[in-house]
Amino acid sequence: MMVRSRRWFAGSSRRIRQDHRIRGVERGLTNSLQFTVIVPALMLATFGLIQAGLWLHARNVAAEAVTAAADVARDYNDDPAAARGAALRIAGIGGLTDVRLTISRQPDSVSVTMVAKPPVIFELGLGRITETATAPVERVTNP
């Protein structure tokens, strides 16, 4: 009988050790569950920052394009095709697509409006950028 009781104790201590190993695996499982929640949130935040950077860059490009078009269109020798070409060239280099450009010239000022689509990762409703520039028309005066 004595031998059997020792075997029983030896087996029970093994069972206890195995129970500790199982608990350790469960604890590791909670860490992996935390990562499954944290990693997508971090990825979403990263893509959001990239999206914001692309959108801000596109706004700067559109502002530069309408400013350049207004500078060309305000010239005394009015050439709307050159102004349109300057704006479209800058917008194309900056990555803007679906560009609509409106140039209106009054006797004393010129106004250029651009509506364009910026490059996006996720379509979040910020799909269109509108920029406007107004400048006075050059006049020739006698000295």
Structure description:
The chain has one domain (2-136). Strand 1 and strand 2 (109-117) form a beta hairpin. Helix 1 packs antiparallel against helix 2. Mean pLDDT is 81; it is low at 3-9. The N and C termini lie far apart (127 Å). It is built from two helices and three strands. It has a three-stranded antiparallel beta sheet, covered by helices on one side. It is 61% helix and 18% strand. With 143 residues, the protein is α+β, with helices and mostly antiparallel strands.
Concise synopsis of the structure shown:
With 143 residues, the chain is an alpha+beta fold. The chain contains two helices and three strands; from the N terminus they run ααβββ. The protein has one domain (2-136).
How are the strands of the biggest sheet laid out side by side?
1-2-3
Helix content: 55-70%
Q: What is the residue-averaged pLDDT?
A: 81
Structural class, from secondary structure content?
Answer: alpha+beta
Output the number of helix runs: 2
Rg (C-alpha, Å): 34 Å
- What is the terminal separation in angstroms? 127 Å
Proportion in β-strands: 15-25%
Can you write the helix and strand succession as a string? HHEEE
Total number of domains: 1
